[in-house]
Amino acid sequence: MKIHKISWFDDFKCMGGDCPQTCCRGWLIPLDEDDLERFKCEKGLLGIRLLAATGAYTRTRMNSGSGECTFHTREGLCCLQLKKGHDFIPWACRSFPRFYRNYGYFEERYLDLSCFAAARLFIENIRDLSLVEDEDEEPATRPCTTNDDKKYLDALLKIRRDFLMFREDGSSGSCWARLPAIYSYSCGLQDTYAKGGDHRDLPPFHDHMASINGEYHLFPMKVHVLREFVDTAIYNFGVKKSGPKLLELLNEALSLTGRYLSDPAGFTAAARSLLDTNEKLLPLLNSYMSYYLYQYFLSAYETYSFRRITALGIIHTNMILLLAMTYSEKKQRLTDDDLALIISLYNRKAFFNETIEDKMYLIFSEVYSHSMV
Ligand code: SF4
After folding, report:
1. Which amino acids bring their CB within 6 angstroms of ligand 1?
2. pLDDT tens digits along 62-95
3. Mean pLDDT of 31-59
4. How far is the CA of 178 from the centre of ligand 1 (A)?
5. In this model, does residue 18 exceed pLDDT 80?
6. Which of 145, 236, 264, 347 could potentially form a cystine with 302 if both were Cys, beta carbons 3.0 to 4.6 Å apart?
7. Distances 47 to 56, 88, 109, 201 between C-alpha atoms, Å
8. The pLDDT value given to residue 175
């Protein structure tokens, strides 16, 4: 099968005990049948610990409380791996942060930015988000879709290419205009497909983008809306255990947005001033949105939910901006490590929880749907 992978996919190296954001904390770890079969053969003390961690092999997950994994050592390493080797640990841990999507005709491979080292690589490569092709490799995963309509998949690839075309231009004007253009085009796509048409019934994205003008409300989004995003399930007691650093940042984000509630223009000015003083931030946010589209836009192959998919990308891009603003209250110039930490902390919590994304999308739809379509 053809493999399309982000060009720096093979550069990933886990930082192990030096990672400021270990992935052995804050996750439910899904287990597959092979994992459970391997664990069942284990005897002695380790066998007993595995028995306990998997509810006597009845659960298809470990670390249900999403606190610290019971096999995480004080030195920040995995004792399953230390004792039994890399092939013994659950597939989810073995493959993390590699992100695979097999669309039946090809497989795409990315590094998930919820890993600190992957987020660092992303920042080092924000100007190089190209995919490279490998021929005839075995896919790493089973197909993620039941759809086999090749023409539709090709159309989605073309639309994604069009959306990504504006990435190179890091100028603020194009960034302000790009998000409303992508969202409104996605609304058009969803309505068109729902009526039995297809993308050819719409003008090319380039023309649509050129027609977007006037006030751009989607970047940065309105301060009261950003505050509502923070006040979802992402900000709850559980975060204290699974991501204490994120909780601290969210607390500060609530206080920052609270201060600007009566001064929305002041908030927009503060966001723009941060982008001016940290010249890497705008291209980074532009690329963050592009990377999101790479990873998730093709899920429309299964769901046809163009509107929701692109809205969530816009929400997440704005949340990274808000958290960067929050962080910069303590430290004016943000380093690459600061930004990698913000991205990995946020992505880890927001991207793997449907309750959080559902609520954020609901808030977004109530405010923006009518004005943007
Ligand atoms: S978050 Fe990434 S770099 Fe850190 S321990 Fe996990 S895989 Fe390694």
Report:
1. 14-15, 19, 21-23, 96-97, 115-117
2. 887 767 889 998 888 899 999 999 999 999 999 9
3. 92
4. 32
5. yes
6. 145
7. 10, 13, 34, 60
8. 65
Q: Is the pLDDT of residue 373 over 50?
A: no
State the pTM of this model: 0.92
Mean pLDDT, the chain, rounded, equals: 90
- Tokens 């069942």: give the residue: 40
Q: Where are the domains of the chain?
A: 2-10+96-134, 24-94, 151-372
Ligand 1, atom 2, lies closest to the CA of 115
Q: Is 351 exposed, middle or buried (0-12, 13-18, 19+ CB in 10 A)?
A: middle
